[in-house]
Amino acid sequence: MRDISGLYRDIETYTGENKALAQEINDLLQRYKRESEAMETAYDVLGARPWYIDFNENSEIIGCEWSDRYRRKLGYTDENDFPNVIDSWINVISPEDHDRVVEAFWKTVNGRDDSTKFDVKYHGIKKDGTECYFHSAGAMRRREDGSPQTFVGLTFDITEESRRLDEIREQYEIVEALSRDYLNVFMVDISKRTATILKLNGYVTEGFGDIEKKVYPYEPFCAQYIKDRVYKEDQKVLTEMMSLEKVKEMLDKSGEYVYGYRAVDKGEIHFYQFTYLKLESRFSGDKVIAGFKNIDAIVASAREREVLKKLSETDIMTGIYNRGYGEKLARELVEGGAKGMLCILDIDKFKEVNDTYGHYAGDKAVIAVAECLKKAFGEKAVVFRLGGDEFSAVIEGYSSRESGKGIIDTLFREIEELDIPELVGSRFFTSVGVAFFGREGDSRDFEQLYKGADECVYLSKKTEGNKVNFFN
User: Fold this and answer.
1) Per residue in 140-190, pLDDT tens?
2) Are residues 192 and 222 located together in one domain of the fold?
3) According to a count of CB atoms within 10 Å of the terminal CB, is the N or C end of the chain lower?
4) How far apart, in Å, are the Cα atoms of 367 and each of 383, 389, 391?
């Protein structure tokens, strides 16, 4: 408040010997002092001090008095640092707010009555260049003719409140976005171990559907849901996945935790997914948002994609890789850091098999050889059909003639034990060529190794029976 101590000395001078008048004025000053002290207390509570701008009879600014608290909020220390002139204030208003705030100020000044009030929010540029957010309000004291005399204002620092509102708004948008996609949405308080229902359009867990009640203990709520709703084989793992300890662990890693499971509805199995989202606001504590939704359509779509992918990679007749995809995988192994062997195999005199027993019998032979290759070489081998009666395989770990011959002999035994009814007891033989890769001096050029193994196939054909030859 403005200092009036000088008035006490002037009273005696101007009232002379009129003691009654002097006493009356002193009483008024004492009342003003008490009211001023009360206002000071109010300002302490509000966290602000008034500032003043004085005008002459021509509505021209003749003086300013900025509060020290306002100066300090902006990072200035005293009047020398932040002078009592209008430009001190004007210059700290951020460019995007400048015109709007100055216009509101002069509109209040030039109003001819008390109906126009100054009430604005703006960003202030602090001495160090950073920004803060202010709320300023004020009013004019006017002369009898309505002209401005003194503008009295208060400025509050609302930076923290603004940040809090922004964070709350951001969290609200997260909840709103989740609510659009998920049937059931909950607010989970990890520290209090409670679940608050925000949206419940899907299945209602038995005993937890009271419309009037929104907050439930988290563990019993989850346990009842898992018991009533979740597919039996998934119940144990989902109990662990939905535990607050697991939720907190996963959210600390990424801020979002997603998990899929199976639910049962009227005897039918459906695919569901939950999503827990961590609220990053400093004011949200340990609260997270949890949403649950049916993802049958997504799973079906994924299955369709998987089917299409499998079709694009698989030889339809035999079920092993087709040539395109098989060669891709084989190249990656041969040209990479692996060590092993590349095999090529075909069925001897296959045309005669087709001509004698028919193409149906020939197809059975092709399918049978594919099964023998998979069984002899194991799941880790890349086995694929080149076309017709020709096959290829890349097997890691076999890099010597001894080990190579051992696994090829295993293949031959599988073939010799074949019993194909369509061939009416007749047997057929295969010819194999092998090229090693990954040893010192071996080539890693796929075409060169393939050509070498293919040449060995023709060498093997010169000997009747199941035969293998090695390129290197």
Assistant:
1) 888 888 889 998 888 888 887 776 666 556 555 566 656 667 778 888 999
2) yes
3) N
4) 13, 9, 11
Amino acid at 299: V
Q: Which residues pair with 345 in a beta bridge?
A: 391, 432
For the four alpha carbons of 141, 147, 149 and 150, in that order, the dihedral sign comes to positive
Q: What residues make up the domain containing 231?
A: 163-300
Residue identified by tokens 């199941």 is 466
Give the domain-ending residue among 273, 300, 327: 300
183 to 200, 292, 410: CA distances (angstroms): 6, 6, 57
> Mean pLDDT throughout 318-342?
91
Instruction: Mark whether 168 and 278 lie in a shared domain.
Output: yes
Q: Hey, what long-range contacts does 44-50 have (CB within 8 A, 24 or more apart)?
A: 46/154, 46/156, 47/156, 47/157, 48/154, 48/155, 48/156, 49/154, 50/1, 50/152, 50/153, 50/154
Structure tokens at 426: 């007749």
> Quick one: tokens of 170?
């951001």
Length of the chain: 472
List residues bridging with 395 in a β-sheet: 341
